[in-house]
Specification:
InterPro entries: WapI (IPR056510). The chain is globular and about 45 Å long. The chain is an alpha+beta fold and 145 residues long. It has one domain: Secreted effector protein pipB2 fold, CATH 3.30.2450. The protein is built from three helices and eight strands, in the order ββαββαββββα. Helices cover 24% and strands 41% of the residues. It has a four-stranded antiparallel β-sheet with strand order 1-2-3-4.
Length: 145
């Protein structure tokens, strides 16, 4: 891929290529994002892509990470209805962040899980990345939560 990823974390790179249905204005069709994701770790490279996340998924993840930054506790997950990609973060003591990346191009036949670790200093960049994605692709007709 010749462009910089829209979001990175501990070997996970995610590119938002656009909306699946750019002309749609309703929540359920208008918010699907076409994603390309890859996870690189020692001896492994797993890629997946397609309309596997929605703008609301990015927004929920962003809000969870903001909570982690603010309180140095809690959890956040970037996950959607589709099983292609999931990034789950949990704050541990002393600013330590544990993460799990589940990624698969074929959820019926493959499972790939990566355990990653970072510290709190990586979290503000995740918030900024989510903000940039949501600036480009705002949530359309948000549902009442």
């Amino acid at each position: 891929m010749d462009t910089e990823p829209d979001l990175t974390f501990c070997g996970l790179s995610l590119w938002v290529q656009g909306r699946e249905f750019p002309a749609a204005s309703d929540y359920w069709d208008g918010n699907w994002l076409v994603i390309r994701a890859e996870m690189k770790a020692s001896g492994a490279l797993v890629e997946c892509g397609g309309p596997i996340l929605m703008t609301g998924d990015v927004e929920r993840f962003r809000n969870g990470v903001v909570g982690m930054v603010t309180t140095l506790s809690g959890e956040a997950a970037l996950e959607g209805f589709e099983p292609g990609i999931r990034l789950a973060l949990r704050m541990r003591g002393r600013g330590h962040v544990e993460g799990v990346v589940d990624i698969t191009p074929d959820h019926l036949n493959q499972q790939h899980r990566f355990n990653v670790e970072a510290d709190q200093s990586f979290l503000p960049a995740l918030v900024s990345s989510c903000d940039a994605i949501l600036d480009r692709f705002p949530v359309t007709n948000a549902l009442a939560q």
